[in-house]
Amino acid sequence: MKHIGIFVLVLIVGFSSCQQSEKKVNRTFTDVLDFNLEIERLDSPLVGLTKKVYQLSGIETKQATSPNWQVELKPFVDADFNQPANKDKYTITEKISELTGWKEITYLSNDAELPIQSAVYRYDSTTCIGAQLNVKKSSEAYQFNEQLTYFPQFGYSIDNMQDLTYLSREQFHLEVDFNG
C-alpha cells in the first residue's frame, strides 16, 4: 500500500512537470529578442509612433497615438528564426567593442535558402539596444530583400526592395520613431 502511494505521488509530480514544460516556448538562441514580448511592452496608450515612408514618388508621414503593434512589428515577428530546427543552421560569433564595451552577437546563415540570412544583436551589459535582421526570399516570380533594424527604446526602420519578374523594381525606406 505504501509503495502504491509513492508510485501515485511520483506519477502526479511527473505529470505536473510535463504539463509545465509544455507551456514553455522552445527558444533555441538566448540572445535574440522576442518581438512578441516587444509588442506586449509597447502596447500602452502612452506609446505612439511617427512613421515616415521614403519612396521615389516622395515622402509620406503619419502619426498614430495608439498603433496596432501586432501590425507594426509583424515584419520582425515574421523574421523570427529562433526555432529548434535552426539550431545548427547559423554560425554565431560574439565580440565586445573595445570603445563602447557593447557586446555584439552575429548570427550568419549556413544555408542560402533560409529567409533570415543574418542577424546582429547589440547589448549594453544585458540590455539589448539594437537588432538588425537581413531577410531574403526568392522564387521564379520575385526576389525580396529586407533589412529590419530595431532599437527597443527609439523605434525601427525597414529597407525593402522587391524585384518582380516581368515588372519594375519597387523600393522603400520606412522609419518609425516611438513617441511617449
What does this structure look like?
The chain has four helices and nine strands. It has helices at 2-23, 35-42, 69-72, 74-78, and strands at 48-55, 58-64, 90-96, 103-109, 116-124, 127-138, 142-151, 155-164, 169-179. The chain has a nine-stranded antiparallel sheet with strand order 2-1-9-8-7-6-5-4-3, with no helix packed on it. A hairpin with a 2-residue loop joins strand 1 (48-55) and strand 2 (58-64).
Question: What tags apply to this protein structure?
Answer:
180 residues, alpha+beta, nine-stranded antiparallel beta sheet, 9 strands, globular
Summarize the structure.
The protein is of the alpha+beta class. Helix content is 22%, strand content 45%. It is built from 4 helices and 9 strands, in the order ααββααβββββββ.
Tally of contiguous helical segments: 4
SSE class: alpha+beta
DSSP E strands, number = 9
Helix and strand string, N-terminal first?
HHEEHHEEEEEEE
What global shape is seen? globular
The proportion of residues forming helix, as a percent range, comes to 10-25%
Q: Bin the strand percentage.
A: over 45%
Oligomer: single chain
Average of per-residue pLDDT values: 83
Looking across the biggest beta sheet, what order are the strands in?
A: 2-1-9-8-7-6-5-4-3
Overall radius of gyration = 21 Å
Secondary structure elements and pairings:
Layout (H helix, E strand, L loop, with lengths): L1 H22 L11 H8 L5 E8 L2 E7 L4 H4 L1 H5 L11 E7 L6 E7 L6 E9 L2 E12 L3 E10 L3 E10 L4 E11 L1
Antiparallel strand pairs: 1-2, 1-9, 3-4, 4-5, 5-6, 6-7, 7-8, 8-9
